Amino acid sequence: MRLRFHCQNRIGILRDIVAHFADYGLNVAHGEVGGEHGNAIYLHVPNLLNAQLTTLRPELERVPGVFGVRRVSLMPSERRHLELDALLSSLSDPVMSIDMEGHLVAANRAAGQLLGVRVDEVPGLSLDRYLPDLDLPALIRRNNARVNGLRIRLHDATYLADIAPLHRENLEDVASLAGAVVTLHRADRIGERIYHVQRQESRGFESLFQSSPG
């Protein structure tokens, strides 16, 4: 069961809350802090039953600084993960995340199909297996900034790679680099996309002129 506590952001409040679960022999598997001002605590208590929650709720709401307790369907990190998966799955372009050792961390379905593996087989794969002539971590360190339109060859096709570096703790120096997100665009389809965009724009202008009074 997953719970959300609306509470004060004070030192020791998490310890006071968790102590009540310990008294009932319940293990808290995971906890997260949320809310706009850190005024929410989320706890995942796998073995908590509805009857136990009914008994525990009054005790939990008597903890100083706790204003309310309610069940939630997902932890914040779980929701973000599902939303990100849904977003990436909807993209037709291959998107992958890499670390600074040159290994794949995650990828969307299009990237998995391009690499010839299932999405759950992606983590840990070495980039050298697919791009032996490109040291992507070195390029990321050298630029330490977004790179757009890097031309690469993969499986006898040419792609334009957009590379967005990832930094730890909102820093921007090379030492804080944690990896990058790479999006691949088929070079032979870029012109087709530009054509369609231009056609849509021209149609928009045509309709504008047609609707204007003479």
UniProtKB/TrEMBL annotation:
Domain (PAS): residue spans on this chain: 80-133
Protein name, per record: Transcriptional regulatory protein TyrR
GO biological process: regulation of DNA-templated transcription
Species lineage: Bacteria, Pseudomonadati, Pseudomonadota, Gammaproteobacteria, Oceanospirillales
ACT domain ranges (all copies): 2-74
Pfam families: PAS (PF00989)
